[in-house]
UniProtKB/TrEMBL annotation:
The protein's name in its UniProt record: Stage II sporulation protein M
Transmembrane region(s): 106-126, 163-185, 229-250, 262-286, 298-316
Native organism: Candidatus Synechococcus calcipolaris G9
Segments forming a coiled coil: none
Organism classification: Bacteria, Bacillati, Cyanobacteriota, Cyanophyceae, Synechococcales
Tree of life domain: Bacteria
Keywords, alphabetical: Membrane, Transmembrane, Transmembrane helix
InterPro entries per UniProt: SpoIIM-like
Amino acid sequence: MNVQRWLVRQEPQWSELEALLNRAEKRGVKTLSADEICQLSRLYRMVSADLARAKTRQVGPSIIDYLQGLTLRSYSQVYQGRKRQDWRAIVEFFQYGFPRVVQDTWLYTVVAIAIFIISGAIAWWYSWQDSEFMALVVPPDLIDLVQNEGKLWMGSIVGLEPLASSGIMTNNISVTFATLAGGIFGGLGTIYILWYNGLLIGAISALVSQNDLAYPFWAFVFPHGSLELPAIFLAGAAGLLLGQSILFPGRYKRLTSLKRQGALAIQLMFGVVPLLIIAGVIEGFLSPNPNVPDAVKYVVGLGILAALGLYLFWPLPKSRFP
């Protein structure tokens, strides 16, 4: 394929689509005529194919990024205009849309994971070297319970499962949305939350290891953590997307960049919430259950993590967008 010739041929149609999208987003899709709506649908299908072709031919990140933005915006307007049944739109989103946006924003997720792991490793190392550092991060009552009584704190959930589960869900959802909102501050708030949570996990890991409680501790964490931690990382990716759009808008105006990246961030969060709800149920009912052997909890956690990985990163049909 002659890339320059292809660009010359396709760019006028991309510009036409962008003009229609600007009108639809500013005034509403109902302000478009019937012919313009049909043209919008046709151009959406065309730009979807162009995006697949651009990725295959590796024409350059700036063009791919531009086409990805057009595709996402077109998808929103076309399916809003068609007034598809809500349940069908939701099913299609979780079948194709959520995995697609996770795959398209994987680099931001990797950065979020790296921030978490680095801070956790630092906390782990310093907690082994200096007990005073651990006391700065871990609540004193947890340290006292583990060091002086040789117990973990999960037993307090047993007998209060429904109440604990709902409280856990609420807390986790609030944390992830705070992680997203932190992106408005150039990503600094997002980085802080990821860093702090990494420090906390690292210090607690050192605490339970020092007191020979690592095996039951991770048996508790694995079942729900296999969903909860990826959800936090995806929320971190959403926050970093917002931060990047503010600090490094690229070829777009800052507001336009924020709208484009914000659309991706919202889709990530829409997929994250169900993960947190499921994780909250598991953490309230399965993770602390003393009647479930620790080995079973490890197997369940690893199985859930493997299933989540397959769901999010299984290759999708190129004809499905976004």
